[in-house]
Specification:
Elements (H helix, E strand, L loop, with lengths): L1 H5 L5 H21 L11 H35 L4 H5 L3 H26 L1 H11 L14 H18 L3 H19 L6 H8 L5 H7 L17 H6 L26 H6 L5 H10 L22
């Protein structure tokens, strides 16, 4: 297994198979056991097309980062750099240290920073603007955000001194976890709750996509849920209370307009809010579930 993952970076078609295979399986499950009744602007295929456009750009960007990851990993080993080298960890230890460090830097921390830093939030809004969260939403990230996530991931590789097999094991788990946590699938409540004590479960992440604060500013984890529990950013909300979209920042009517989504972060937050207020009245996201009234926090 170690040899397989150690050279997986050199076989992009196999890596793509994990992405496509996971999406297809979860796409089928969404039809069989849906969590919410989603109401797409046109249809599910059109919605997927918009998100896949962002996904393709994301993949191109991270193909470039892959070269740097390999160089950093090799440099860390050659110069005895990183936690793994410093503690003299074996193969299993290297996998565990890499998993925790990469999930913290490339999952939880970068996500928190994007929510707490106004200029970065402008780009992350594109991910949250999706009114119909499903398996295709997982890689709906503005290209600038993809670059930022790549930088944080590189920092994690450097801190851990992660070998390539450990990096590829984590990245494979991350791809599958991202798809599963965004997929519109219903899991038995006890199973979902049990998973959420250590892993980010589907219902746990759906809370993060609720259209109002403070729920939007919670549950930042990517694979492991321990960071949210450790740092007090974990929140619960029953699935039948969840609505997707945004209560400000970006018009919900345009959540499937690729051109507007790409340009929105560069218009400035105030301009985006003013445009929303003066052009088209904000609409309630399309889920039929009821939602409690939440007092809005101040603008990020």
């Amino acid at each position: 297994m170690i040899e397989y993952f150690n050279s997986l970076e050199q076989r992009p078609l196999e890596r793509l198979a994990f992405l496509v295979g996971g999406m297809l399986l979860l796409w089928l499950l969404e039809g069989a056991i849906p969590l919410l009744s989603l109401q797409y602007k046109r249809n599910k295929l059109r919605h997927a097309g918009i998100n896949f456009s962002f996904t393709l750009i994301h993949l191109v960007i991270h193909t470039g980062f892959a070269v740097v990851i390999v160089l950093l990993s090799d440099w860390s080993r050659a110069h005895n750099w990183g936690l793994i080298q410093w503690v003299g960890a074996g193969t299993l230890g290297a996998i565990l240290i890499s998993f925790f460090v990469l999930d913290f830097f490339g999952g939880w921390l970068v996500h928190l920073v994007q929510h707490k830093t106004a200029p970065l939030w402008r780009f992350h809004v594109i991910h949250h603007s999706d009114n119909n969260v499903d398996v295709t939403t997982g890689l709906r990230h503005h290209p600038f955000e993809s670059v930022l996530r790549g930088v944080f991931f590189l920092a994690g590789v450097l801190v851990a001194g992660a070998p390539m097999y450990a990096v590829m094991i984590f990245q494979t788990a991350l791809v599958l976890a991202t798809q599963a946590t965004h997929a519109n699938i219903h899991l038995p409540r006890r199973l979902d709750t049990a998973l959420s004590y250590f892993l980010v479960s589907p219902n746990m992440h759906k809370v993060h996509h609720h259209w109002q604060q403070p729920y939007t500013d919670s549950n930042y984890g990517a694979v492991l849920s321990i960071w949210d529990r450790m740092f007090g950013t974990f929140m619960k909300l029953e699935p039948d209370q969840i609505r997707y979209g945004l209560d400000r920042y970006y018009p919900n009517e345009h959540d499937e307009h690729f051109g507007r989504l790409m340009a929105a972060p560069f218009k400035g937050m105030k301009a985006a809010i003013q445009q929303e207020q003066t052009s088209t009245p904000a609409t309630i996201p399309p889920q039929t579930a009821s939602s409690e009234v939440i007092k809005e926090e101040s603008v990020k």
